[in-house]
Amino acid sequence: MAANKFGRYVWLVDLIRCHPYITFKEISDKWEDCGLGDGKPLPWKTFMNHKDTVQTIFDIIISCDAKRGYGYYIEDADLLEGNSFRSWLIDSYATLNQLQADRKLEKRISFEKIPSGNKYLQTILQAMHQNSVVEITHQGFGRSHASTFQVEPYHLKVYNRRWYLIGWSVYSEEIRTYALDRILNVKVTDITFKLPESFDINEYFEGCVGIIADGDIDIERVVIKAYGWARKYLATLPIHDSQHEIASDDESTTFEMTVRPTYDFLQTLLQQTDHIEVIEPQWVKDEICRFAENILSYYKKTNND
After folding, report:
1. Nearest-5° angle of CA 87, CA 71, CA 77?
2. What is the value of pTM for the model shown?
3. Is 255:243 a contact under the CB 8 Å cutoff?
4. Terminus of the chain with fewer CB atoms < 10 Å: N or C?
5. Does 3.40.50.720 match the CATH number of domain 116-204?
6. What angle (nearest 5°) sits at the alpha carbon of residue 84, between those of residues 82 and 86?
7. Which intervals hold domain WYL (predicted)?
């Protein structure tokens, strides 16, 4: 499929999802101005073809309500917003469409760089599509040498600007997580596997913040109190989906969440610097205190030197 055609489908979805109802004339007028249609109106036949293709590719149904002036809308729009992959794809292509239509904006938008792990993305995606075992050469942080072994690729996940492969380690016979930027080589083998029906990535990372899924750490209630700028920051960008506000006053906002307090979670709390306080459980509070004491010891050492 030509990239520009795909971009047109994304443009149509993005336009309609931004309007509760929008008529075909309004869609055609927007089409003339967006740059994708060479300044010409959108033909009715093209619109209908795009609408059908959008349903085929994205499983998104564009419907028409005759009672509201024949306005078009997206059925089950809430499900679309709740699907992180489709939302990310549409947002990304919508931005790319705008950049292609207006080159003046090209130098006015910046993107985060992801380390070189994306070099092997296509190879791993191919293996996942074929359900083929991959042979990877991997050297983790702190390892003096690389190791080569076979993995059944189950899932790819992005976290904190890094790509990760989650898969079954044939060698250790357990599900492991591998950072793609620590992979030195990937080879697709002739060995195939069957993705277990019982494997659910959301269940695997249940309660987790980040990429560490440590089953030895229980999921439990964590309460934090946010001060200053962190109050609004955490309210608009929650640490975890379960986070919700349980109390508020003029100085602070108290949030509750049900999480697995792994190392990644503790690091996320530390990112809020001195603007949050852990209320419970006590052991999480103690861990944050231990981190703070270690940090303080580094600066004390520097001052003494």
Report:
1. 25
2. 0.69
3. yes
4. C
5. no
6. 100
7. 120-188
